[in-house]
Amino acid sequence: MDNLVLIRVTAALDERLARSVLRDLREESLHRFRLIFEGRDRTRSVLVSLRPELPWIGRPVGRWEGPSPRPSSFAGACRKQLRGAVLERVEKLSDDRVVRLRFAEGRALVAELATHGANLVLLDREGKTVACARRSKAAQRRLAPGTEYRPPEIPRRLLVPHGQKPEAIDRCIRRWVDEGESVFEILRRRLFGVGTEGARLVVEEARDTGRKPATVLIDRLASLERGELDPVIEAPEDPLEDADRGVLDPSDVRLLPWEPPVPSIGPAPLRHPDPAATAGRYHEAIERMVLLGERAQGLLAVLSRETERLRVAAERADRDLESFENPERHRRWGEALLAGLGRARRAGGAAFVPDPYDPDEAEIAVPIPAGLSLQDAASSHFRQYRRARRGVERATERGRDVVERLGRLERLAVRFEAARGQEALDALESAMRAERIPVGLQPTVRARAAARMSRPRLEGARIYRTIDGLTLLAGRSGRDNHRLTFKLSTPDDFWFHAQGCRGAHVILRNEGRLARPPASSLEQAAALAAWFSQAREQGFVEVQWTRRKNVRKPRGAAPGTVVLKRFETVRVRPALPEDRIDPAPPEKFA
Questions:
Q1: Does residue 300 sit within a domain?
Q2: Cβ neighbours of residue 582 under 8 Å, at least 6 residues apart?
Q3: 3-state DSSP helix/strand/coil percent for the chain, to nearest 5?
């Protein structure tokens, strides 16, 4: 990841995530780790990609659509030690591309984002390594479990510009220029952490303003540290949409550490709500294009191997067909034996009998296995005739099927030879499955979630229907309340509970995402919550209601105990809806 971009990404993550709680760490693929933080106002995700050629950290664009592997031991250790921990700070550890997420109880998660050296390291309260996602030989000793964590060392031959005065950097630049190097290559290769895009921007600004490159670089570094500059994406179109269509050319897209002072000819640079989102959109687009390319290569390689296998099978079927003896010969021999039993004469391993198909009845020699009578030999030839005929038919049919399928696969390969984009690859995958090629059989994360949602388990919930046709769910116990509220309901559903007493959680389904429930359904849901509460015997009951997303479970509290961020109150008589779906009789909440 670009070191200059990382300065602003780290500051943006620290600003938005400080004091939030880590709810989960998910290993989405071999290289992707998603950290889910819950703050006071909303839930935010941070993605750390350890892809060797392009590691990065930032805010992801959306959900992971691909298949997920079984969680590794590293992901399990992180969840065990960090889940529920409060994030204290996100900081850039050194001049290198190292970011530390420090939690309040002292533990930390360190992302090392150097190209071909990316890693994610879990630290204990004493700053010692507990586990790491990658075990490379180069970092084996430095990241050994139980040793104090040290960031990677910066090569001594490189000059670190941070903390340097412009004059010192300018002297070094002049010395290297005298040795024949260009200013751009000096900034990119001799100064640590400047990078290709940063060097290009410094050279262009120095040329346009007449200032020295060292002065421009130091000024820009100071502006980045103060938060006065933000990264932008320079691209003809939205790179993520181009990647989904399969038309993104990575050479046409650049992530700049800051917007050029002099606008270039073409579309305005793309900027997003914060630097972490900008960096995330750029890297997601590049990564998505790479993944689509790998997927296309993999599918076409499978198709090529299957096509080659069918070519070999077609050749084998032809050889098998040639290897079968002529079935008609055995039938003719059997008939000749039966027709000429009285005139046959045996000599050696054959019997000489008249040919029934020859007008002159010329003798033919019929092979006779040793020890068989002429009748048994005739039966044997008829059996060989039937067996050979079936073999020829099967070989012919098999060869025809192989040739037909080979033709279909060859046409399929031509059709998708330049397949690009998500839709084209989905179509290729579907066509290959139709040809009995087992590809794309592992369901994606979203497909598995949809399958789970399509088969909800409603044990422990009473089900009713309101006068408006909406579904009402009421819990039966504390554990059922917890499951109903946090497992079966969606954030947009409406939640009801009698105020100031124990009772059932009631969920009013909101599949249409209404801002408020219909008045009649609201009254019925509140009346149901009052009925399944300890206040049922009262004439009127105060019932709290809100959207389910405003309901939280306090840490360590008993199942069914919740707190509300905001709510409204309605006063109703306890009552049951007339339309009940599940047949069990209603009972009082215990």
A1: no
A2: 458, 462, 463
A3: 40, 20, 40
Tokens of 582: 């599940």
Residue 148 in domain? no
Last residue of a domain, one of 233, 262, 287: 287
Residues 218 and 333 in one domain: no
How far is it, in rounded angstroms, from Cα 117 to Cα 55? 9
pLDDT tens track for 266-301:
677 888 888 999 999 999 999 888 888 888 888 989
CA–chain centroid gap for 151, Å, is 30
- 270 and 173, same domain (yes or no): yes
Distance CA 158, CA 176 (A): 12
Residues 483, 387, single domain; the answer is no
Q: What mean pLDDT do residues 24-43 have?
A: 89
User: In this predicted structure, what is the pLDDT of residue 392?
Assistant: 81
Report the number of distinct structural domains present in the chain. 4
Q: Kindly report the backbone phi and psi dihedral angles of residue 463, in degrees, each rounded to the nearest multiple of 5, phi listed first.
A: -120, 130
Range of the domain at 368: 324-414
Q: Which residue, among 120, 76, 129, 84, has the nearest Cα to 104 in the 3D structure? A: 84
Give the Cα separation of 574 and 474 in Å (integer): 14
Q: What is the pLDDT of residue 320?
A: 73
Q: 3-class SS at 28?
A: coil
Task: Quickly tell me which residue has 């992971």 as its tokens.
Answer: 64
User: pTM for this structure?
Assistant: 0.64
Residue at 395: amino acid letter: A
E strands in 348-406: 350-354, 363-367
Sign (positive/negative) of CA torsion 340, 346, 350, 352?
negative
Q: How far apart are CA 217 and CA 170, in angstroms?
A: 10
> What CATH number corresponds to the domain at position 30?
2.30.310.10
For residues 510 and 389, membership in a common domain is answered with: no
- The radius of gyration of the chain's CA atoms, rounded to the nearest angstrom, is 38
